[in-house]
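Entry for acetyl coenzyme *A complex. Fields follow.
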Amino acid sequence: MNSARLTLNGNEFELPTLVGEEGEVGIDIAKLRGSSGAITLDPGYGNTGSCRSAITFVDGEKGILRYRGIAIDELSADASFEEVSHLLIHGELPTESTLKSFTSALAANNDLPKEMVTMIDAFPKDGHPMGILAAMMAALSTFYPDADPDADLDGVVAGLMGRAMSIAALSYRKQKGLGPLPEIDPSVSYAANFLRLSHAESGKEYKPSKVLEHALDMLLIVHADHEQNCSTSTVRMVGSSQANIFASMAGGICGLWGPLHGGANQAVLEMLEQIQANGGDCTKHMELVKDKESGVRLMGFGHRVYKNFDPRATIMKKACDEVLGELGIEDPLLDIARKLEKIALDDDFFVKRKLYPNVDFYSGIVYRAMGIPTDMFTVMFALGRMPGWLAHWKELRDEGSRIHRPRQIYTGYQARPYVPVADRG
Ligand code: ACO
């Protein structure tokens, strides 16, 4: 197939088609408006390809997720977050020496200007850490106005990811009253350093448990990219106006925050806690979810693309069992989550709509086991997603994309006169 025909008001239009590397077919409508005067309408973009991309492949029917061709199961089992970040941004796994220099660059570029430390301190004590992360990400552009990813991509990436980790850790420390950030340890991984920067108490030696370090590394990897989701599309949208890299990432952080996207991990935990507080009656909660009038959703369930299973959820559920098992933690919320999943998988409401656990159904329970507070969960997701956003930002810039500017079908008033205030009834 290499073209499609559209008949509109008796006229025929030939539209070129293209086929992706994995056989997916797209109809190229780039010239449709010019030739026919018509646009397409696709609220929520469920049928719209916004770009060509060589970064991540998702097959929602088969439950496949690959970064640069490598399956998520392999990467989460064998690779480090630093390797995966390099893979996403540069397209290939790093050599040993490149990996070493990328890891040291991340550790060497985590310092925050003292004014930013003061700003973080000035936010309300219970201010949401996603608000702090978004604001501070945008603020980085004011302290590093000369950061030039075209001249030194690796330096800018290291500074951005390293400082994002410090901003996240400092907002956690502020919440817990733990004082200033401790020194980073350049000999350990990004995951170990995040745990260190967050949890180390002043004057005390801190060594994160290997179980937690490994679990966090895996969590960051499974969240690292997911093609054209809401936050990544936002990064591309903002980046397409040639806004600076920090502003583009701040846009992504805001897009991620909502409970229908990255904020689902916080919403899942709050839902489990609420069920627990109400006596642990899962059936009652599920009745509420199925009552469309209630507006209640089963958080951590369902996905726009995955209609069979989310491979990240499978990895996450296993990690959850392993981490809690190895740390000897018995979390009653895990029992509630398991019960909800079982009820949903046997219930026609969910089966018919192809609703399965997504990546965030179990992730919160692992974060909880790490001692990370609920309102920090989405920040953890953002740290993991940063290399994905950066990879998409780079891809967009490399291809010299046009500014993103969708059209609309206007549904408002037709032309009418202005009425002076004195004449309005
Ligand atoms: N609980 C109950 N019903 C649901 C759920 C859910 N979690 N998700 C979808 N449905 C129902 C909808 O009510 C709708 O039913 P209908 O056909 O009778 O009207 C049908 O399933 C399709 O739902 P849509 O909202 O059209 O699906 P969409 O693809 O737009 O949304 C989304 C996907 C946002 C993930 C949705 O499934 C949801 O809200 N899930 C809960 C929030 C969540 O976990 N988000 C995290 C996603 S993963 C991530 O972003 C990292």
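NOTE: The pocket of acetyl coenzyme *A is lined by residues 44, 260-262, 264, 289, 297-304, 353, 355, 358-360 (CB under 6 Å).
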